């Protein structure tokens, strides 16, 4: 089983989604050799460090916990080679099933305690299988 399938919602999962799904870049920090920056495509890592003065996790949107940011992940997936997704609630959990362009279901469904968490896990699984 993949590590992200058991990760809790939060900054670490958000950073993983930012890099693997949303196209953010992972760059060694110019200011601290032990730190890695995660910056949006076309972003300037120096500005991220100097202007914000925040940790990497504070700069990444909260994809796994906030509905508004979750929709960005869904929109990114809609641009990929899949036909659709079925969002549902079952036994007090939220789930998502994804179909590809041939209308093949890609998995039996990914479930989590919140919809943003289920979407993030599905997006990571989908991009892992695709690439």
Give structural notes:
The protein is α+β, with helices and mostly antiparallel strands. Helix content is 38%, strand content 21%. It contains five helices and five strands. The chain has helices at residues 11-20, 45-52, 56-59, 67-78, 115-130, and strands spanning 25-28, 36-39, 82-90, 93-100, 110-112. It has a three-stranded antiparallel sheet, covered by helices on one side. Strands 1-2 form a two-stranded antiparallel ribbon. Strand 1 (25-28) and strand 2 form a beta hairpin. The longest helix is centred in the C-terminal third of the chain and has 16 residues, at 115-130. The protein is globular and about 45 Å long. The two termini are 17 Å apart. The model has no long low-confidence stretch (mean pLDDT 77).
Topology:
Layout: H1 11-20, E1 25-28, E2 36-39, H2 45-52, H3 56-59, H4 67-78, E3 82-90, E4 93-100, E5 110-112, H5 115-130
Antiparallel strand pairs: 1-2, 3-4, 4-5
Helix pairs in contact: 1-5, 4-5
Structural shape = globular
Distance between the termini: 17 Å
Main sheet?
Answer: 3 strands, antiparallel
Structural class: alpha+beta
Question: Using DSSP, what is the number of strands?
Answer: 5
CATH architecture: 2-Layer Sandwich
- CATH topology description: Bacillus phage protein
| Strand order across the largest sheet | 3-4-5
Mean pLDDT, all residues: 77
The structural domain count equals 1
Strand content: 15-25%
Please estimate the helix content: 25-40%
Question: Rounded to an integer, what's the Rg over CA atoms?
Answer: 16 Å
CATH class: Alpha Beta
């Amino acid at each position: 089983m993949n590590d992200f399938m058991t990760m809790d919602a939060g900054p670490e999962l958000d950073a993983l989604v930012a890099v693997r799904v949303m196209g953010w870049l992972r760059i060694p920090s110019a200011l601290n050799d032990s730190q890695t920056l995660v910056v949006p495509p076309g972003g300037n890592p120096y500005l991220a460090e100097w202007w914000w003065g925040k940790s990497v996790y504070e700069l990444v949107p909260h994809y796994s916990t906030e509905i508004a940011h979750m929709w960005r992940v869904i929109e990114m997936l809609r641009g990929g080679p899949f036909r659709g997704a079925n969002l549902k609630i079952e036994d007090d959990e939220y789930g998502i099933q994804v179909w590809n362009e041939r209308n093949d279901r890609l998995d039996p469904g990914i479930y989590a305690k919140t919809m943003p968490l289920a979407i993030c896990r599905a997006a990571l699984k989908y991009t892992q299988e695709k690439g």
